[in-house]
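ERR on first pass: missing label on line 2. Operator R.T. fixed the label and resubmitted. Corrected input:
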Amino acid sequence: MLKKRTAILMMVISLIVGSLLTMFLTGSNSIAGQASSGEGLLASITSGGLKAEETRKIGAAIDLIEGNYYKDIERSALVDGAINGMMEALSDPYSTYMGQETAQQFEESIEGSFSGIGAEVSMEDGNVVVVSPIKGSPAEKAGIRSKDILLSVNGESLAGLELNAAVAKIRGVKGSTASIEVKRNGVAEPIKYAIVRDDVALETVNASLRKDGIGMIEITQFSLNTAERFKEELTNLEKQGMKGLVIDVRNNPGGVLSVVIDITQQFVPKGELIVQVEDKNGKREKSFSKGSSKSYPITLLMNKGSASASEILAGALQQSADVVLVGENSFGKGTVQTSFDRQLGDGSLLKITIAKWLTPDGTWIHEEGIKPDIAVSQPDYFMVAPINKEKTLQFNKNSDDVKSAQVMLDGLGYKPGRVDGYFDVGTQKAVKTFQTSQKIKANGIIDSKTAEALEKVLIEHIQDPLNDTQLKQGIAEVQKEIKAMASKK
Amino acid sequence: MLKKRTAILMMVISLIVGSLLTMFLTGSNSIAGQASSGEGLLASITSGGLKAEETRKIGAAIDLIEGNYYKDIERSALVDGAINGMMEALSDPYSTYMGQETAQQFEESIEGSFSGIGAEVSMEDGNVVVVSPIKGSPAEKAGIRSKDILLSVNGESLAGLELNAAVAKIRGVKGSTASIEVKRNGVAEPIKYAIVRDDVALETVNASLRKDGIGMIEITQFSLNTAERFKEELTNLEKQGMKGLVIDVRNNPGGVLSVVIDITQQFVPKGELIVQVEDKNGKREKSFSKGSSKSYPITLLMNKGSASASEILAGALQQSADVVLVGENSFGKGTVQTSFDRQLGDGSLLKITIAKWLTPDGTWIHEEGIKPDIAVSQPDYFMVAPINKEKTLQFNKNSDDVKSAQVMLDGLGYKPGRVDGYFDVGTQKAVKTFQTSQKIKANGIIDSKTAEALEKVLIEHIQDPLNDTQLKQGIAEVQKEIKAMASKK
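pass 2 clean. output:
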């Protein structure tokens, strides 16, 4: 569990979730119970097309641009621009036009699978490093290991590439071969692998059971296969005698509406409301649970990165299943989108906001978010900016870098006294104590060596679940309820 | 001269130049020698309009949006969006689509006149305050004075409005009446004026003659009437026996190409190059001077706000008239736009970049700007941020507000020692000295009273031409050359 928690100082970008930073909530499946997008109950297509006067005006503009602009331009770029511009005129960040390539990534993310070798990678010191191969993926089967450095793909070096560019080279269509050279710690010569790319399922559910009987399930996004995976893991935990559950949707940007409804009804009594979808005319379509409630206590962890489908889950669990919400106010996206991927006829796609969704009690949480029952923020050092290592920091300096160092020292318990960027004697003392602990010469000066040590220790500290204050609170709450239930018996 | 210099801490927005922040260089007039826009030699209009496939795709998109979006939308907003989007696809900030209202403001700015009462106003403490009535304007004739507070227009209160919204209420078509209530210092009751709106010429040229015989001409933008006004002022200065000239185009965003050529050739020997305009195919159209050089020395003041036509002036004066450029690197806009205001048929307008312009020696200064011969920046305190007066600043505090205060104290000569935001004993001492000079109790603490006094004194300091280091350098350079010329005789 929680293996995906990323430290601020590390640039861990998964091969898979890169395209999901702006996330959606597609309505096509659950609203109408149909499998293909753009055909939901709420989706209607008029067929008037452009009116003569509109065609004339847009045509006059395209002529003026083409005839006069001082550079050559692709006509298709102007047409794409026109459609982009119409979407922007809506002033709705969730209604967007996607060209062919973006559309494909978007659909992969909905489906929860992509074609590739299946390795989560990050950029470290300019190298493309494997964080971990995905379970059951071609990469894992071939023997790629965590910490392997990927040197080249099909003879093309990855040196000097941005992570996204490197990832683009590694990915490819199903059935094609990626010949990969790998540098492995302790092995002198690069190792060569020929890996046949395949459909790789995106792991969106991570589960574990603590020794005290509390189960934890993290959902990283709601893809088409997520409900099934969730039920698998939940059943598995229950079989092992789970006494309480912590569900974690922190930084979960959302996903497919039917999927989150399916997950939610695992916990909501039959016939109770999960979510209401309200169309332009105020007509509401209500989703009721077909499931049942659980006998064990549950908390849900959320933060300001929990959006859309995550908020449907949070709202329904809070209002219809007595689940305690722990963490931060959620993101606040209260709309439903449908994607139209065939009407434009060239592989491009329109994602359009078609409705609002409301919590069971009828609240529209858009731009407001959902308040946690128990508010817990991560400490400041979870968000601290890295230290610029080209500058040496010492007594009487005053800068944002000093501030970062102070926040780190404070987070690690070295008590610098002030965290406002002024390097005073208290800061100096804290630096010396830290240096001693790291067997660095205790001169009270933060040079690049000390700064690097500070960041390394901080990352380890952040990655340790014991320092995840939100998680700790979520577990404590479940423990408390387990105790209360036991005393009632 | 220099009456338009604005202090950073004051929000002085002129009634007139508000729409000129993004500025243009229209090419229609001078390039082709024709008076109407969109008919220049370089402007050509193809007439293919939208192709069937393009009409179909854009039409499908508009149908999908109209049929599915969760809010009501104006169809015309989508069409405007489409045209905006095509312009954005060019990735050229100077090619833009303007709706009817913006188009009208744009054309007024080119013409250098607008219809209104003719008062420059600013927002101070929530009040709309007259900076000065424009010479010869209806406002001046009616008796509106500097520092008057405008309370209402035609019975509608201006309280609580943003400056732009207030200005919109004050302006109106020529011949209409604005009934204005004014609060004047020392007068108990509001004063009522009925002012008939008229065309008000925008003053783009400010000239003065120093006692030492050095003339100064500031050009605030290059409107259609600017060359004529410039020649008037120049002739006037020459008649008074001007010995040298400082031309000031700092923060001048540009204007009409034919106008800047006309002004430039007052100083460039006949037959010398002023500017070259290069079209898409590399064909160059060269503008040669029909004027003559001057016998007196000239410097030109410019800064990073000097753009477009200002840079044509700077480049030509430097390369073809031996004028010394003083100040900062200029903005770097090396393109020419033409506006097409009839083709769209509804009062809206397309401004399209149609060509590059090059300096006499063939340099394209786009995104580079022009280097000054003598680099002089204004001191940091010209750009200092105001102090947040809700917080009290004192010893051992550390913040951006402390930094602002230190920069102000330093600029005023109170030597706080450090200007990095840490309030040390040096800062405390400087505050006490300042407080004593202002007859405020010298406690070394910056409360709102001290902060306000500091800002007030700083604004006066900035507005004093004696503290304008670029101007001083420009004058010194002219003086030096006058001396050198005298010694040669």
